[in-house]
Amino acid sequence: xxxxxxxLPDDELVxxxxxxxxxxxxxxxDRYARVVFSFAVRIVGxxxxxxxxxxxxxxxxxxxxxxxxxARGSFPNWLLSxxxxxxxxxxxxxxxxxxxADLVDIADVLRSEVDxxxxxxxxxxxxxxxxxxxxxMATLPPAQxxxxxxxxxxxxxxxxxxALLNEPLGTIKTRMRLGMRKLKEVLGPQEEP
Amino acid sequence: MSExxxxxxxxxxLIPAYVLGALEPDEIEAVELHxxxxxxxxxxxxxxxxxxxxxxxxxEPRSVPVRARRELLARIDxxxxxxxxxxxxxxxxARLGWVAAVAAVLVAAVLGINSLRMQEQVKxxxxxxxxxxxxxxxxARFVGSPRGFVTALESTGVAPGAEGGVILDPTRxxxxxxxxxxxxxxxxxxxxxxxxxxxxxxxxxxxxVGNDGRATLYISPPDxxxxxxxxxxxxxxxxxxxxxxxxxxxxxRVGQ
Lengths: 193, 256
Prior knowledge:
The structure holds two protein chains of two kinds. By secondary structure, chain A is an all-alpha fold. Chain A has a domain at 7-115: Rna Polymerase Sigma Factor, Chain: A (Orthogonal Bundle), CATH 1.10.1740. In chain A, 71% of the residues lie in helices and 0% in strands. Chain A is globular, with a radius of gyration of 19 Å. Among the domains of chain B are: 1-57, no CATH class; 149-253, Immunoglobulin-like (Sandwich). Chain B contains six helices and eight strands; from the N terminus they run ααααααββββββββ. Chain B has helices at 3-20, 25-37, 39-52, 66-78, 95-120, 125-144, and strands at residues 149-155, 163-169, 174-180, 190-197, 200-207, 215-219, 230-236, 247-253. Chain B has an eight-stranded antiparallel sheet with strand order 5-4-7-8-1-2-3-6, covered by helices on one side. At the A-B interface, α2, α3, α4, α6 and α7 of A face α1, α3 and α4 of B.
């Protein structure tokens, strides 16, 4: 009987992905698909587009497993960083062209089933991290929360945020700086998620 | 306070926006240049990145449609081999090994370029034969050029696994750029190759990176190779960019 892959740590699973073991990818998918999908939905605001981002992020982790170095960060950090880049690119592209309304099988969407394995297998750390970052954000004044969220989830620059909120650029920079400083203090030294 | 400290403080103030991705391209460049020489700011970036690494968890949890897994597995089934399991090109500084290994690829690259050129011109069949013969001779000259040399094309860190090299042939004033391990550009983006002279950048073509992370580009620069300082690859929103505005992916020195 072979090793139960679900018992293996992420770095061992990534090593197996490098060797071409699709089952290792599936275990990582079970662990992190929900976090990645939720994050993608938060950025792109569209479940179908978020599915594409989710697939592409895992596809890249599969194709680029050889480049992942545990010394430089955890697997979920790496995966979420790929997801962030993909999702922000999507919303920037969407600003440049009209919304698509093509090739979507509506019936398929309507009968979409939930991937219960990904729900069940999500790591306990994920819910713990959710609680920690929410609690930390709650310590910030709403105006500081807002600029951090506009930058990170909507891909806006400080100048764009200033224009959007009709506030001086200096005010936005200060809010961002103070907000990040406070988050760093509240969260303290981090262990890699 | 010294000018140096003033500059340090000004850059340090940009770090929160840098890690959040909220800077303009010129500001990003200023921060990244400073980070090369400032360990304090590099440490600060690392610390603040630990904060941004938690921001994705602010998203409301959502169940994943089962369809996404099916489609992902189908895509992997269609392209099943991860990069690390493929044989990599030899390191760009292993000059002789590199040159020997690329000889076959050179043939394909030059043929490919000629093929593209021919598509733009009148499609005359006899040109294909001539071009094939010429390209074979060109490859032989390229590899055998006594004045040619190889220079490393190094990743800036944005794509840490990317590596490559450039074969420069001053005799023919041509260069062949080859990369491996570079992820495909984001949808709608292109990797533009620039010859750099001082602050001037000249768009010399698009690096056609495939799903396997590899690409080659034959460069025939407008001026003598020796007049350039280096080569830069950036990710741009279109192939015809007049100036580099996107992320710098790889760089190489040309002049000595």
